[in-house]
Amino acid sequence: MPARLSELSDEYNVTQDTFSSLLLDPELPCPKGLVSPSGKVDVKRFSVYRNNVVVGLTGAIADIFPAIQRLLGEEAFMSLARLFVADNPPTSPLMFQYGSGFAAFLEAFEPLKDYPYLGDVARIERLWLDCFHAADAEPIAPDALSAFPPESLGDLVFEPHPAACLFSSQYAAVSIFSANRQGASMEGINPAAPEDCLISRPDAQVDVRHIPQAATVFFQTLFDGQTLGEAANAASSQDPEFDISMAISTMLEAGVFTSCKLINEEPGSTGQ
Amino acid sequence: MLNATPRPIPADHEYLAECSVPARAGAGLNGQHVDDILSDDYKMGFFEVHAENYMGEGGLPHQALTQIRNNFPITVHGVGLSIGSERGLDEDHIERLAKVVDRYQPGIVSEHLAWSTHDNHYYNDLLPVPYDQATLDRVVSHIGQVQDRLKRPILLENPSTYVAFEQSTMSETDFITEIARRAGCGLLLDINNVFVSATNHKYSPEKYLSEFPLGHVGEIHLAGHAEDKDDDGETLLIDAHDRPVADEVWKLYQDVVTQMGPIPTLIEWDNDVPEWHILRREVKIAEAILDVVPEHPLLGERHASAAE
Ligand SMILES: [Fe+2]
């Protein structure tokens, strides 16, 4: 090919750099070099790709944050989602990991400043999906603790289930999440009341349950590898009314741990 | 025949159903259908899953797929490798694919002639590549990289496209033929994609199919498309996967399988997913066509190796 001709054709090479920079910005003109059968640059044709990308990514955000969508209404939600995806395209082909920045995006969005709980509701929705996809593990049996002498229970340490986590909000984000996931009314919820939750997957179904703040301290202490005795003390100093038997039944019901052992016991001999 | 005959890597799971995919019709697996599928008396030939949906650690998706896999052969269709990428493949993603393949022992593994990731951004769409020498060399080397890791051949699927690259120096069929020859991969022939691209770029789908290397085809895809208009008011078809297969596509399918003989055929319907019985009806239409296709296909190459 003569030099000049190849230079000319290079001008019309469309790199993936060019192509991708145009996908999320409808203001930019379509690249030369991408043509219809009539040989012309065709906006409508290029916009099929733009539309596929935007519809695909906003659809993923809508799938991950259904409670936020119900709170904002579909139209407002979708226009927010379009703003979000344009600035925050996924960084992985695993779409079920997308949207970790959505909560902060909602909080920073000026017109939503009267709804400061939205960010935490979105965080719970994101944690819900992490829990849904987390690794499988058998939770400890309901009677696991009876394998230990009662006087030694305070020395037990626990292995967390891979799907279990805690979340604390300054707002009533747990009640708002639950009401909107169930399609229920928000009546009676005071958004300004702080709430905590335990997110776990005792069977295949994700369970988000509202727990007292002292129970969060209790589970967090156990997650940190400290003993049942230390966890009970930490929770009681947060709240003298802390109900340990209730916390232990929550722990067993919600499948928060996969094994337990006495702190000085050799690894491997578990009470599972 | 360079198709999907698996040479599985050592698997860490055993399943009751066979690995190898029969020359029957199957459907894309959607989570909402799993209970209907397992309780249905009609047992279709196989199910296809998108690899990326099973790259999570655990939970319901894996439970459901394990149940399906215990009852049916499956095929794994990747949508996130970005085989056409200018910047090389993501090794971590190849590892994730290998893990899914190892775990579920699919009879067929396939990917797309497209790209979807650039500069660490994933666009969740199958974006087009120019048909030139540099792209050809790159795609061949990327397929080799994947096949080396999986220790088995993959099938590469022909795309639906909406724009053409002026820089292309060869036809799509020449490009794909050369990829199959050099990479030693098989091909997944999506007949809806052929019809969509042929309409959009004003060529004959029959001519395209007459130039397509059918001897390399290990699986066929069928799907529905939407209709729109371009800036010139010309028909622009969109690969929508949201409705029944069009009559013209059924006709092309009939012609292809009459030439090739029976072949694993998948109905793709992954947007506006219908109830199970509606998807099943589409699968049965394909199955009815496969049932009356001559056992001894006209295609000598395939015939010879099928008799081995
Ligand atoms: Fe396809």
Characterization of this structure:
The complex is a heterodimer of chains A (272) and B (308). Residues 1-9 of chain A have low confidence and may be disordered. Chain A is mainly alpha-helical. Chain A is elongated, with a radius of gyration of 26 Å. In chain A, helix 4 crosses helix 8 (173-181) and helix 9 (213-223) packs antiparallel against helix 10. Chain A is built from 11 helices and 6 strands. Chain B has 308 residues and is α/β, with parallel strands linked by helices. Chain B has one domain (2-306): Divalent-metal-dependent TIM barrel enzymes (TIM Barrel). In chain B, the strands form 3 sheets. Chain B has an 8-stranded parallel β-barrel, surrounded by 4 helices. In chain B, strand 5 and strand 6 (121-127) form a beta hairpin. Chain B is globular and about 50 Å long. At the A-B interface, helix 2, strand 1 and helix 3 of A face helix 2, strand 5, strand 6 and strand 8 of B. Strand 1 (34-35) of chain A pairs antiparallel with strand 8 (164-165) of chain B, so a sheet runs across the interface. Bound molecules: fe (ii) ion. Fe (ii) ion binds at residues 157, 190, 193, 221, 268 of chain B. The site of fe (ii) ion (FE2) has 5 residues of chain B, from loops.
